[in-house]
Amino acid sequence: MIGNRNIEIAPSILSADFSCLGEQIKAVERGGAGVLHVDVMDGHFVPNITVGLPVVKSLSGFTKLPIDAHLMITEPGRYATQFVKEGAQMVSVHVEADPHLHRTLMSIKDAGAQAGVVLNPSTPLGAVEEALHFADYVLVMSVNPGFGGQKFIPQSLDKVKRLRQLIDERQLNVRIEIDGGVDRKNIESVVAAGAEIIVAGSAIFGTPDAEAAVKELRNATVQWV
Ligand code: DX5
Ligand code: ZN
Description:
binds zinc ion, binds D-xylitol-5-phosphate
């Protein structure tokens, strides 16, 4: 797919050095990041525990970037609007964790944020087909959620392409986000497949210069901007 699209790099703070998180965020701002991706994990839906509401609250008062809260938690409907209240401008919930997606997505929108729905690598696109009409974005996981630094699952590209086609056919205003294992080598292929919000954790914070890493990822996508 070619044309004018709003490609944004979304650094995931999961791989950041939390002892100097503020400096790391300033670096990705200087690099031209479009969104700050915050991974919320509860140790139940995924086998890892990270950060939650208080961290989103302090970051929203600190950064000018919109905060994208990726909820990897059970019963996300119980907490989604609390993340909006603490300053997240985008909140996404996993389809595998929520039997009441319509209600949760609408509650996020009513609270004033963009609502996203997330698919694990083995979850078929059909699981979100109906929810497309109520979502602002779909997040395609290109690794199994839980940890940074995993290898990109190559079949995710075809999934993004098919999702792009579905969205375009229905003329919906739904953006595609991709998360997991994206780096300088494969970013062009994920953008070519149709993704617009590109999450990268270790490819940015795993390098000595996070600012330069964001710039490099952005430069690799200029032909689509
Ligand atoms: C994984 C998280 C990702 C993670 C990506 O469960 O959702 O956001 O931080 O990290 P990388 O880019 O290193 O795969
Ligand atoms: Zn994530």
